[in-house]
Write a structure and sequence with these properties.
One of its GO terms (biological process) is carbohydrate metabolic process. Belongs to the glycosyl hydrolase 47 family. Helices cover about 50% and strands about 10% of the residues. By secondary structure, it is mainly alpha-helical. A hairpin with a 5-residue loop joins strand 18 and strand 19 (about 525). Helix 11 (about 300-310) runs antiparallel to helix 12 and helix 13 packs parallel to helix 15 (about 435-445). The protein is globular and about 85 Å long. 1-deoxymannojirimycin binds near residues 431, 432, 491 and 520.
């Protein structure tokens, strides 16, 4: 009897499980199911290809100029630089002690931290993101520890759904930069392994990649919050630099072809007022909501057009043209002067200009300065000036707070000038964009005010974000007794501290004629490639 009862229960449970699975399947659209089938098919094809692929040809490294100490002669500048290095040590040592192997550190709870962009696996995001900063600062023991962890533990065969964009800029970018700086093969090998895991994300009806991909199954999908199932411009538009390097290093054009396909598709599309909307549906190839931004959701797409040109030794003139066209439309429709005379970049939402600027948008000051040389109609002076104006506005957004740290977003409306209005826009999470712009402006002008502003920011971060076990973001930059968010972001080590360190270093450390920084501040060398081919690589000759 008992046996009968047990069997009956098992049959009932199996039925329920099958029903649940069928319900889950039914929830998926036809397109999604077809995309999954296509992904599986492509996987098999790729596996077959891999089997009979020849070993990769050795590729001569590009001329690696300017990997030196960059030590400034001036004692005061040297001391400031040493302070920034000490901050890096503090951030790293505490991550090492309390968060090792986790993606990020919770410096107050003293444990690991992660967000959904890294999936559910411990991928040591802080280690990979921090490597090149450690190297540049001469923290070689720490660099070696990181390398050892990567060699032994960084594994991408995990059942984990990650953000294609974030993994590309932080992991692939970080690994490639570590490879070029140190020459250690392990970084190149890991970068290529990871890139292979991202490729299935491109298996969509249009070739515009999904925002997320499962590293094991290769199944991709988009963020639930994105307009009408769309992919995001700043995500699928921020792969170019890393993917060109991957093709260069492996001799396999697959990466290059993926990103060129995206570019060609974008070139063919109509743009409302010449502006690129932030959302594009990867199934239909149509724009989603008409929202344009030089901040979140749009930002690094424009940055990568310019940097594709720079990284190709200015041969990729197609990218430069797309950049010039885009920034002309941005200047016409999004850039304004406030009543108080501050130049700001607003956001375009369904035919209306929102007079709000994000902290993320502040990177654009540096971008305008970087793109000044080579600009259309020889408007170099104009773009350098525009960069200086954005740097000034962003400095004001810091200076008008209690903590002298910038809010996440600030307005220029009804008497408000460069100040956050909503409570949920008053936080500072150790972001780099304002300091990034100070550094580019410093390189191009040597105006001492940029070092001064960078030093103000360093002191404010050290005073208000430093805790005994690392650095934390703060929730309200207008409050004299701020609370912490208890996250030490990996980009704090990759970008914020690196840009500060470079700001107080000599210019011959990573000169901008030879290196292009990816959007996560990972330096990649300029490649001497022809316009749309990879003829610099002997594999293609
Ligand atoms: C970084 O991960 C990158 O700079 C990215 O492009 C956007 N912003 C974050 C840091 O704020």
């Amino acid at each position: 009897r008992e046996e009968e009862e047990r069997l009956r229960n098992k049959i009932r449970a199996d039925h329920e499980k099958a029903l649940e699975e069928a319900k889950e399947k039914l929830k998926k659209s036809r397109d999604e199911i077809q995309a999954e089938i296509q992904t599986e098919k492509n996987k098999v094809v790729q596996e077959l290809k891999k089997k009979d692929s020849k070993p990769l040809p050795p590729v001569p490294l590009p001329n690696l100029i300017g990997i030196n100490s960059g030590e400034p002669a001036d004692l005061d500048i040297r001391e400031k630089r040493n302070k920034i290095k000490e901050m890096m040590k503090h951030a790293w040592d505490n991550y090492r002690q309390y968060g090792w192997g986790h993606n990020e550190l919770k410096p107050i709870a003293r444990k690991g931290h992660s967000t959904n962009i890294f999936g559910n696996s411990q991928m040591g995001a802080t280690i990979v993101d921090a490597l090149d900063t450690l190297y540049i600062m001469g923290l070689h023991d720490e660099f070696r520890e990181g390398q050892e962890w990567i060699d032994k533990n960084l594994d991408f065969s995990v059942n984990s759904e990650v953000s294609v964009f974030e993994v590309n800029i932080r992991f692939i970018g970080g690994l490639l930069a570590a490879y070029y700086l140190s020459g250690q093969e392990v970084f190149k090998i890991k970068a290529v392994q990871l890139a292979g895991k991202l490729l299935p994300a491109f298996n969509t009806p249009t070739g515009i990649p999904w925002a997320m991909v499962n590293l094991k199954s290769g199944v991709g999908r988009n963020w639930g919050w994105a307009s009408a199932g769309s992919s995001i411009l700043a995500e699928f538009g921020t792969l170019h630099m890393e993917f060109v390097h991957l093709s260069y290093l492996t001799g396999d054009p697959v990466y290059y072809n993926k990103v060129m396909h995206i570019r060609k598709l974008l070139q063919k599309m109509d743009r409302p007022n010449g502006l690129y909307p932030n959302y594009l549906n990867p199934r239909t190839g149509r724009w989603g909501q008409h929202h344009t931004s030089v901040g979140g959701l749009g930002d690094s797409f424009y940055e990568y057009l310019l940097k594709a040109w720079l990284m190709s030794d200015k041969m990729d003139t197609e990218a430069r043209k797309m950049y010039d066209d885009a920034i002309e439309a941005i200047e016409k429709h999004l850039i304004r002067k406030s009543n108080g005379g501050l130049t700001f970049i607003g956001e375009w939402k369904n035919g209306h200009l929102e007079r709000k600027m994000g902290h993320l948008t502040c990177f654009a000051g540096g971008m305008f300065a970087l793109g000044a040389d080579g600009s259309r109609d020889d408007k170099a002076g104009h773009y350098l000036q525009l960069g200086a104006e954005i740097a000034h506005t962003c400095h004001e957004s810091y200076d008008r707070t209690t903590l002298k740290l910038g809010p996440e977003a600030f307005k220029f409306d009804g008497g408000v000038e460069a100040v956050a209005v909503r409570q949920n826009e008053k936080y500072y999470i150790l972001r780099p964009e304002v300091i990034e712009t100070y550094w580019y402006m410093w390189r191009f002008t040597h105006d001492p005010k940029y070092r001064q502003w960078g030093w103000e920011a360093t002191q404010a971060i050290d005073k208000y974000c430093r805790v005994s076990s690392g650095f934390s973001g703060v929730k309200d930059v207008y409050s004299s007794s701020p609370t912490y968010d208890d996250v030490q972001q990996s980009f704090f080590l990759a970008e914020t501290l690196k840009y500060l360190y470079l700001l107080f270093s000599n210019d011959d450390l990573l000169p901008l004629d030879n290196w292009v920084f990816n959007t996560e501040a990972h330096p990649l060398p300029v490649l001497h490639l022809a316009n749309t081919t990879l003829s610099g690589n002997p594999a293609y000759r």
